[in-house]
Amino acid sequence: MTDSGWAEGEDRPLHTIARNIATRYALVGVEMVIGLLTLPFNLHHLGAEAYGLLTLTAGITVHFSILDLGYGGAMVKFVAQYRAHRDARSLNEVASTIFVVFSTFGVVAYLVTVALAFNIQHVFKLTPAQVETGRWILLIVGLNVAVNFAFAVYGGVCVGFQRMDRNNVVAVVSSLAVAAANVIVILMGYGLIGLVAATTSVRLATYLVYRHNAYRVFPMLRVSPSMFRRERLREVTSFSVYASMIDWANKLNYELDELVIGIFMGSAPVAIWAVADRVISGTQRFTNQGNAVLFPVVVDSDATRRQGRLQTLLLEGTRLSLATVIPIAVVLVVLADELVRVWVGAAMVGAAPVIQILAFAVALRVGNATSTTLLKGAGQVRYLAMVNLTTGLANLALSALLVKPLGLIGVAIGTLVPIAIAAIFVVFPAACRRVEVPIAQALRQAVWPAAWPALFVALALMAARRFAPAGLVTLLLEASAAALLYVALFVVAVGRRDRAHYAARLRELTGRTRNFAPAA
Known about the structure:
Layout: H1 3-6, H2 13-46, H3 48-62, H4 71-84, H5 88-117, H6 128-160, H7 164-187, H8 191-217, H9 230-254, H10 257-265, H11 268-287, H12 295-303, H13 307-343, H14 351-367, H15 369-377, H16 381-406, H17 408-434, H18 439-465, H19 472-494, H20 496-510
Helix pairs in contact: 2-3, 2-7, 2-11, 3-6, 3-11, 4-5, 4-6, 4-9, 5-6, 5-9, 6-8, 7-8, 9-16, 10-11, 10-16, 11-13, 11-14, 12-15, 13-14, 13-15, 13-18, 13-19, 14-17, 15-16, 15-17, 16-17, 18-19
């Protein structure tokens, strides 16, 4: 490979970031639309009980990603590192070593899935018919999980070479194909097992495309068990151990609520929770794409002791993250009831208060994501891991404590409270201390300009609700008007200097001028 191939995108960092974020947003948008359409379709054709069973059993396998043990992040880190050094041999040894590790994890995951499948009746409250169907769902979906582990190496190569756009394009096509298979199989009357088999087959075929892309991005790539090296394993493990602690904490924080509900309340309430979770998780994914690309910038700034750059990243990243998520959160709080009725029908209106509570949680998560990225990349990953683990355990304990007296609302409160305490009183202040920015200054420059416009938007929406007729068109118009009002107020809130700065960046990105400094 020529040196220009190794260095692809390094001379235009802002364009590289924009390309990766743009295709990521395209993927998130496609998946959100598919989710909005297929959820009511599946609920209507399968029924709440069957859909709840699908969500509950297939959701179990999602938690096997905890076996990643941080090696996925380590894969990206060391691919990027050895790409910078133009060291193909080391890169291939790292990729091969992690391939062996992940293949082992895949086998372990499938063996655990088989054990769960044949003991599912002891884990959840299910009827005999549901036990049989749930068993087959686990066995099929578990195969996808096992294969995904091994092929994750190839996706990591693309990310390490800053070609996330390739992964994103493949994922868009795969999501569309899975949705098409979903609709066709259900309309043909094959039921849950046929649905899971068809969609899993599409996903398995997609992994071959990811592999092809990795070799296109890095033609010298060689992945072979014979290139496994113990010294490489020690090298990547020195990073992955702390990353894995953060991943485990995220599972506790974000993905165990359905299990709590299934254990204490059964499968039917899971379907109601799934409606709220689909909205909230979609909001988080849609508004938190920019922070992922900041991690290598933070690492570089910390290594070169560019404290001023870290300060700028914290202040601007937090402000823009909040400005992205807050207007959506306000719309969800005010319009949750109407959203649920229009989207999935009055039978699922119990999801509305859950959406309202979790909207605050997602605003805190996304708004605090820059602080999290900064601490992880600037030498405080151990501290961050302990905070996240404590928050996750508190979430799990509080949700389990409140689910019986308060039901789904109790689980939502159990999720919100620990996240709010950690974000407001621990993580954000720690990030401010790390970059030596007074908390009062950070609140004034990063939080307040994004927060106060939301107050006016919320008041305007509540006033409009008193006179607006029910219906999808009205809901969309209200949400659009709220977004436009927020943007207008936010532009005023940031001040003249920052407005000029953002305009300059936009002109640089669109190529209207070339006289700008490199991207921060």
